[in-house]
Specification:
Immunoglobulin-like, 5-stranded antiparallel sheet, 429 residues
Length: 429
């Protein structure tokens, strides 16, 4: 599985994009600026961002996920992720795919989000498959399940399905799905049922029928039928059904989220999550802050204090709105730029022909050029590396007898301001 965060959207494409609701504007804005008036009608979040519809990924799918391998215990299985070849390269880079490995339709515990899996004796007798859930910018989810690979083995004498279970019904919220029992290779089998959403059993859903809820919209539903005889059990997993999103309302920001506060290192920035569905609902919100370098680790609160790592960079945030009975909504704030951080340059004698150069703050790992000047003449040029942490000892050229006045000038960088030291007087005898 290849995780591709929203970073690229903020580092290149999205920072310069124009979003119809004013969520992101070409260039950056002041955190305290007055927001523009919202348009009369705001499209769903996906269309705000890219002009896309909810079924986009299904329409641009050119190759479904595929499992490769024999299925023997100990022989690795490899997952080939779905390919969305009809998307532009930029949009393909923004698609993320999550992977769940399934045994008899249920997620295998302890298995990570990986494209390679080695079946063990614990999976002997399983109908093994992998489920992929792909999304664009965290939305437009498309859930797909590979063909089943049966893992040989299992409990001797356990019932085996000669015809798999199947589910029927209209895959829409509010409709009822029903499972048809599998045909077992032996008589007098007792069936039990479990309905499964994207690889996770649904709490309390243990009847032969299941009423679809809003929580199922956009997800895959399967039924797992376990047949038991004489204390031995076998399982059969139904065909998956993807629940339509068309009958579920999308949470939409009618007033876009916005950042306010003091955009400087050490200042406090705060997110107004905006108004959703005209203020008729009060969703729960999740936040993620970004700089042009990507998502800011651990920055998932409504407030954020920019650090030296964000100095000189644009900062924005995403707001995900969640409410039972609705599809999640996504909003992107305005972009604010954190100004470059101030520096201080110092110069001190360190020996007969040595001077100690220091540019602070050291935790900003200053990089760039420092010039040592005598009057208006450059006597040494020093190039700071991040590993120097702003400290260098510099050997001076041979100086004639007398008093010399030296000054260090740090020229600054993309994240740090220019600064100059006081004059250092050196007496050469």
């Amino acid at each position: 599985m290849t995780k591709r965060p929203l970073a690229r959207a903020l580092s290149a494409a999205v920072i310069t994009a124009v979003v119809s609701a004013g969520a992101l504007v070409g260039g950056t804005t002041s955190a305290g600026a007055e927001p523009e008036a919202a348009p009369a009608a705001v499209e769903p979040a996906q269309q705000q961002l890219l002009g896309l519809d909810l079924g986009l990924l299904e329409k641009v799918l050119t190759a479904p996920p595929q499992l490769l391998g024999t299925g023997d215990v100990g022989d690795p299985l490899s997952l080939v992720e779905p390919v969305f070849g009809l998307l532009s390269p930029v949009l393909q880079s923004l698609v993320t795919t999550d992977i769940t490995w399934l045994c008899d339709g249920v997620a295998i515990p302890g298995v990570g989000n990986v494209t390679r899996f080695v079946p063990t004796e614990a999976q002997a007798g399983c109908q093994l498959a992998a489920q992929t859930v792909s999304s664009l910018l965290g939305l437009l989810p498309l859930s797909l399940v590979t063909d089943i690979i049966p893992i040989p083995g299992g409990v001797a004498g356990a019932p085996r399905a000669t015809t798999a279970a199947s589910i029927s019904g209209t895959p829409e919220v509010g409709q009822t799905l029903a499972v048809t029992d599998p045909v077992w290779d032996t008589a007098d089998v007792t069936n039990t049922y479990a309905w499964v959403r994207n690889g996770t059993p649904i709490a309390g859903a243990t009847a032969p029928t299941y009423q679809v809820t809003a929580q199922d919209a956009g997800k895959q539903i399967t039924a797992r039928v376990t047949g038991t005889k004489a204390g031995k059990s076998g399982a059969s997993v139904s065909n998956p059904l993807t629940i339509s999103t068309e009958t579920v309302e999308q949470l939409v920001a009618t007033a876009a989220p916005r950042i306010s506060g003091t955009p400087r290192t050490g200042g406090v920035l705060s997110i107004d999550p905006g108004t959703w569905l005209g203020g008729l609902v009060s969703p729960l919100f999740e936040y993620q802050w970004y700089s042009s370098a990507g998502p800011i680790r651990g920055a998932t609160s409504r407030e954020y204090v920019p650090t030296l790592a964000e100095a000189g960079r644009p900062v924005a945030a995403t707001v995900t709105a969640r409410l039972p009975g609705f599809l999640d909504g996504l909003g992107i704030t305005n972009v604010v730029r954190v100004p470059t951080a101030g520096t201080r340059t110092r110069l001190a004698r360190a020996g007969a022909r040595l001077v100690a150069l220091r540019v602070t703050p050291a935790k900003a790992h200053p990089t760039g050029t420092v010039r040592l000047l005598q009057g208006g003449k450059v006597v040494r040029t020093v190039r700071l590396q991040a590993a120097d942490n702003g400290r260098r000892t510099v050997r001076l050229p041979r100086l004639v007898r007398g008093t010399h006045r030296l000054r260090a000038v740090y020229l600054g960088s993309r994240t740090l301001t220019r600064s100059s030291s006081t004059t250092l007087r050196l007496r050469v005898r």
